[in-house]
Amino acid sequence: MARQFSMQRGKTRVVFGAGAATKIPQEIEAIGGQRVLVVSSPGRKADAATLAARLGGRSVGVLAIAREHVPADAVAAAQQEASRTDADVALALGGGSAIGLAKAVALAGRVRVVAVPTTYSGSEMTPVYGVTEGGEKKTGRDDRVRPVLVVYDPTLSHGLARDVSMTSLWNAMAHAVEALWVGSSDRATKLAAEAAIGLVATSLRRLSGRIDDGEAREEALEGAYLAGTVFADAGAGLHHRLCHFLGGTFGMPHAATHAALLPHMVRLHREAAPEAMGAIARGLGVLDPVDGIALLAQATGVAVPLEKLGMPQAGVNRAVEAAMNAAALFPGALDRGAVVAMMQSAWSGPAARPTGPALRAPRETLTQAGFGATLQSEALANALPQKQNAPRRAPYGLFPELLNGTPFTVRSAENSRMWMYRIRPSFSHSVLTPLPCARFAAPLEEVNPNRTRWKPLPIPDASTRVDFLDGLVTLGGAGEPTSGPGYAVHLYAANADMVDRSFSDADGDLLIVPQTGTLDCRTELGWLRVPPGSVLLVPRALKFAMGLPEGHARGWVLEVFGRRLRLPERGLIGSNGLADARHFLAPVASYEDRACPAGFQIVTKLGGHLHAAMQEHSPFDVVAWHGNHVPFTYDLALFSAMGSVRYDHPDPSILTVLTAPLDDHGRAIADLVVFPGRWEVFEGFRPPFMHRNAASEVNMVVQTPSPESGYDPGCTFVSPLLTPHGVAASTYDRILATPGDVVDPPRRGPDESLWVMFESALPFRSTAWARETPLVDPDFLRMFEGTRTWFDPKRP
Residue 677 class from Cβ within 10 Å (0-12 exposed, 13-18 middle, 19+ buried)? Predict the structure, then answer.
């Protein structure tokens, strides 16, 4: 849907939308403009002449002399022309050069500035000006240069060349990013900056693939508008100061310099501006803002060395001095050594990260069975030591490594460990550095007692590369791993493999439930394939990576910290039924001996926080292993459901697949409950009774044969602890209208129906994302409105 809006922002009137340029004569008249001088670059002269003709008698001519960095000679000529024509409006048509020249004219007299941007410079929303003289670019702020009218027409940018579009959008990106870490930014500015990053990043990806994408052009222009606005509010930081220095001193192209330098500058600010890093990560939709912005620059073709933009090697030291002279603009203590390293890297250019091999499980993925058992596997004959776990020289020169998933002195039945024999030591990596709190691993907020449903998380657009890890978002949970037992529920939606990247969760076990899209999971112990209808259990601290053989995937993740997930006690059921240990499949050893000189990123979660490091080899180099700290897949179709065969509805606990006990009194940190296709044969069937359970229930619809029921595949809904819930009002009315003497025949729930539930004795606390996302479904509670009363005191 095309965006159209107009508003007054301070002294600036903003008109936005396709076709807005046709309103320029009326808008000029509305602000009282009488004598308009149209300013442009030489390349826009014909367009400027067309616009001047449309202004009719209000036009006093066209001045097509704008050049990059606003040279002083061009300023003098423009001021002279404005004086000669007695202009009262300088209308800039074009990008930053034209707008900058119009601003310089406004500094010298009574001329007001009107901007019609055709690029994404964002200068039109700021009171910032700059003039280059004698090899030095001097900038300043003066409210006289702030445009009184800005007309944004996305169609004017449709012919913009790809290279200009990319660098101009990175100029806008720099405005938004810088607004996040300068000290003067308020909350509103930072929220707008984050939104601008999202719009600019999305349009960059889309335009990189298809330069004539009209919707992307619209998003790009709105992102540039927001970015310019927040830059005007926040002011320039170290990045802009350095870019202006490089441009004025070495004649480097302004937008391209912004684009080339920004990823390096984000890395420099990583530790000094953690809140900014979180906003950048959320805006980009990635886990690691430093890696994310670098990869986006590489993907859009702007990650070039400053050397190629005209900066001599001798200029590195001059740039370092310029940065240190502006150290007050850095949100912390600026280290000279770090600045030197940044400028040297920016001058020579970043090392391009090659794409690693696709993550595809072998066609015949080998597995072995036995949940909770001690298993063993070797990919090379005799790779597994037989006499002792850690011989002085292990077979094939492998390194023994012990992974203890539980404390040493837990009961033997709960002890979980794994001996691995790997090609390279797993501690051979760089220092683990914190990743920002973005959508995944976000803090939990207050308990919401209301039932809530979320629509399915959208599969990312093809123009945006989102892997399993970047596609994770935390919905809610209870507790946190440093203070006791708890759980978290996450959603994921992805469209790309995890290339040269792995994840491990030291906080707890992960239970992954695909809804659509098969997962090819590579773990340190081997491969597992996880289609929809099955689940994957990854024990704590084990590294894994996800491949998407179908090109997309969506589902849910249960994270349990505390006691580990296990099979439930059957009690009176006896020795059979429910989930059988032999149906859980573990991998067999499968290793890769692969060096990664450009870096393999390992991401880990510990204490509720994410950290990342780089190493120069694949972590999936385990040749042999033995133990019971093993990942498993389980096909939910193999669950042997138990139920009532006479009357009344059975409790959902009878459908528990796995449980993580909270104590020894029947309470659970979390249960995995499945509602598969099954027979329902009890008499006097009626809808499930209204109930209030001492449990938080997170329900997920994997598949349903009847979407008209109101529950779309992929949706998620929560029934909070002890909150009344039941089926829809229409269902009660339909079934309760059935005469009481009608005998219900046995009913077979279809196999095409599969619902899953995470159930916990702990209250569910949602994240800010869960409360604020537009995926919250306002129609959910309406399903339970209007239930009629069936009370009749005369009829028992």
Answer: middle
